[in-house]
């Protein structure tokens, strides 16, 4: 195909680019298509932990899981004192007897923030993200380094009738005491737990399922697993740097990441289609023009499925410019 034969087509492309300032609207069909991919985890995994320097860090393995979730997410997190049944409730929300670790001492069993992504039991096409947090009051995290000063005029330094030193007696007094209710055995005692307790637990789960809505940003944008991962990463990086996290700043940073990725996705769709067309050259001008328009539309749809807050059309324009550049490279290559 000669350069002269494609000139009208290139001019037509330029006219489309110059007049294409209006950003296409996202359709419900596109939203549904983008929410078709889900991930089910067999067990929880650590989401946010502390590194060797004591700074918060997001586990990359957890981010990779979230990146695969293109469905809207309902996020349920539990926070509270250690050994108060948080992990047990989260296991019940996941529809499992075991999963999040249960503890039976005043030492928090859960360290950091753990994540479990499961299909939402009552909302089709939605992923339930359960976040179990480290119990407040863990002796390993609560107590700083200090000196114990104890005054007792009647104290006998004996344990089970045997003489001990002051340090041995204090260690014995502060030794972790196991709970009489055997919290760690709850996961295997369902038959022994009172029916009233199980009834209340089920009622709690149903309330969470029915009244916890899909997570959205303040402008109504639906949060998917991938977006949740971006937000978590931005927040943790901000906190670790010593700054105060700001939702708006996190959203702006996420929009840049998402829109740049959207342009790449759109260009890949256009370029792969044109490469296949190139294999059948020479072709009639009308065939090339028709294929270009079809691929441009398909690329724009792929872009729109992922783009976020491209209010001024900057990134959509970048996609269009990239498509034209790819077209010229193919023609002159």
TrEMBL record:
InterPro entries: G_GB1_RHD3_dom, Guanylate-bd/ATL_C, Guanylate-bd_C_sf, Guanylate-bd_N, P-loop_NTPase. Keywords: GTP-binding, Hydrolase, Nucleotide-binding. Pfam families: GBP, GBP_C. Gene3D superfamilies: Guanylate-binding protein, C-terminal domain (1.20.1000.10), P-loop containing nucleotide triphosphate hydrolases (3.40.50.300). It comes from the Eukaryota. Residues 12-29 have a biased composition (Basic and acidic residues). Residues 1-37 are annotated as: Disordered. Residues 70-148 form the GB1/RHD3-type G domain. Belongs to the TRAFAC class dynamin-like GTPase superfamily. GB1/RHD3 GTPase family. This is Guanylate-binding protein 2.
């Amino acid at each position: 195909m000669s350069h002269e034969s494609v000139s009208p087509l290139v001019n037509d492309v330029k006219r489309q680019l110059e007049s294409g300032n209006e950003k296409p609207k996202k359709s419900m069909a596109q939203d549904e298509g983008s929410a078709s991919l889900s991930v089910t985890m067999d067990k929880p995994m650590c989401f946010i932990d502390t590194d060797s320097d004591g700074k918060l860090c997001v586990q990359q393995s957890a981010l990779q899981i979230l990146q695969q979730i293109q469905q809207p997410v309902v996020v349920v997190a539990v926070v509270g004192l250690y050994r108060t049944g948080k992990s047990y409730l989260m296991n019940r929300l996941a529809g499992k007897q075991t999963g999040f670790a249960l503890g039976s001492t005043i030492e928090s069993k859960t360290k950091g923030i753990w994540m479990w992504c499961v299909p939402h039991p009552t909302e089709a096409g939605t992923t339930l993200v359960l976040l179990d947090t480290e119990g407040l009051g863990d002796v390993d995290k609560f107590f700083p380094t200090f000196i114990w000063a104890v005054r007792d005029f009647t104290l006998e330094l004996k344990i089970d009738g045997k003489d001990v030193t002051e340090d041995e007696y204090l260690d014995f007094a502060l030794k972790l005491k196991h709970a009489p209710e055997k919290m760690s055995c709850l996961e295997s005692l369902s038959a022994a737990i009172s029916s009233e307790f199980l009834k209340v637990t089920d009622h709690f789960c149903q309330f969470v399922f029915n009244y916890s809505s899909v997570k959205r940003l303040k402008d109504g944008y639906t949060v998917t697993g991938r977006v949740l991962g971006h937000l978590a990463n931005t927040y943790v990086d901000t906190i670790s740097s010593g700054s105060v996290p700001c939702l708006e700043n996190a959203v702006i940073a996420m929009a840049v990441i998402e829109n740049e990725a959207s342009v790449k996705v759109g260009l890949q769709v256009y370029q792969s289609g044109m490469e296949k067309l190139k294999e059948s050259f020479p072709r009639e001008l009308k065939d090339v023009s028709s294929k270009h328009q079809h691929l441009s539309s398909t690329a724009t749809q792929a872009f729109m499925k992922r783009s976020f807050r491209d209010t001024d059309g900057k990134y959509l324009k970048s996609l269009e410019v990239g498509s034209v550049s790819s077209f010229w490279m193919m023609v002159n290559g």
